[in-house]
Amino acid sequence: MRKVLCILALISHVLAQAPTQAERDAILKAHRCVRENVQPTASNMEMMGYSMSLEKLAIDWVQRCLLERPNPNLYPQYRGTGQAISVVVDDNPNLVDIVQGWYEEGKNYVFKNNTCEGICDDYIQMVWAKSTKLGCAVTCCDQTIPPRRKPVHIIACFYRRGAKWPDRKPYKAGPSCSRCPSGYECYRNQCVMNSDPEIAEPCDDDELER
Question: Which CATH superfamily groups domain 21-193?
Answer without folding.
Answer: CAP (3.40.33.10)
